[in-house]
Amino acid sequence: MTPSPVCDFSRAGVTITAMPTQRKIIHCDCDCFYASIEMRDNPQLLGKPIAVGGSPQRRGVVATCNYEARKFGIHSAMASATARKRCPQLIIIRPDMEKYRLASQQIHEIFTHYTDIIEPLSLDEAYLDVSECEAFQGSATRIASAIRDEVRETVGITISAGIAPNKFLAKVASDWNKPDGQFAVLPEEVESFVANLPVNKLYGVGKVTAKKMRRIGIETCNDLQSLSDDDLKKYFGSFGERLRELSHGIDNRPVQTQRVRKSVSVENTFAEDLLDLQSCLGQLPSLEDQLRRRLDKVRNDYRIQKQFVKIKFHDFMQTTVEMISQSLEPENFYKLCSDGFARGNKPVRLLGLGVKVLPASEEEQPSSPSQTEEEQLAFFEGDNNS
To answer: Is 232 exposed, middle or buried (0-12, 13-18, 19+ CB in 10 A)?
Structure first.
């Protein structure tokens, strides 16, 4: 395959060189996956607002919801009780993970009809590298359309797709024509496409970073491109270089056929708030037992690098505290829980324990005890995804 020419972008004295590449990447993302499966299996649900998640009476949260429910402002990770208040007629269905896994396997099998280079991100989304696919004369847009048709006919749900020269742009594009649509960013369209792209669409830019960008007048990739290397480093540290590349639509990450686990964790949302620190500490042994059982399944493949505790308070403010550790030490969890609780000192609705891990074959890397950006900048309103 002949590589495309090197692309140079210059803005405010900054020159960026993109690696030669001619990848064709498709990001496939099922539309409200769990809810779509439930509507497929029960046509009486069609047209009604539904959510898949826990009970409002037991502090449950919404895993996903259909588009009828989203009209009421309901979204994933919202408390089921809040969702029911926003939409009294909301139908909440308990998740059936085995059914969703089966549908996911069927979809993954369809992907393999077109390429072996597949990177699953979750049950309902994946990256596909179809650069070498000969179907439809190598047209990635026609391949994406064929995949969507096959999923609709075989699995009975809809899927949206983004097509682009790299993973970052493909993922952004898959949201462009949701639900049941697709959007392509051609190589010659990359610069114009990213120019007006909001910075919160950039990979790795969360709520904290986006807020920081707004404070300094950065709203779009075009704004970000205007910053010099020194300013990027000043405002965003080592992440500045990555932001510079993404703001020009550059992403040289390959599609990884084997995902590397970064953490192992467990968590529990309590039916009644834990009112004080001692109540929280009393829950740690049970959570630790669950974590050990989960960790035993991957112990031979990974080694522990850090321990962490996640706390969500009754008002949904959330914090995570971590420390360097090479083993599962109960005393560390007690200390982390105490430190985390002190940040809010108020009733707790959710506790989680976990470890950051590295592949067993990977060489030891120097670790820094510094906290993540969200931890440094105090609490943020988080979700319930782990």
So the answer is: buried
Residues 106 and 120 in one domain: yes
Q: How far apart are CA 88 and CA 85, in angstroms?
A: 6
Q: Please indicate whether residue 125 is annotated as part of the active site.
A: yes
Number of domains in the chain: 4
Catalytic residue among 38, 68, 119, 125: 125
pLDDT digits (tens, 9 = 90+) for 322-374: 999 888 899 999 999 999 999 999 999 999 999 999 887 654 444 333 333 33
Same domain flag for 48 and 153: no
pTM of full prediction above 0.85: no
Is position 208 within any domain? yes
Q: Is the same domain home to 112 and 26?
A: yes
237 Ramachandran zone, left/alpha/beta (phi>0; psi -120 to 50): left
* 142 and 180 fall within a common domain: yes
Contact 336, 371 (CB under 8 A): no
Q: Cis omega before residue 179 (within 30°)?
A: yes
- The 10 Å Cβ neighbour count of residue 377 is 14
Same domain, 277 and 340: yes
Quickly state the pLDDT bin for 85 (edges 50, 70, 90).
very high
**Cα-based distances in Å from 158 to 34, 136, 286:** 12, 21, 40
Q: Which residues form the domain of 203? A: 192-247
Compute CA distances 155 → 81, 84, 93, 248, 252, whole Å.
31, 30, 20, 37, 32
How far separated are the first and last CA of the chain, in Å rounded? 39
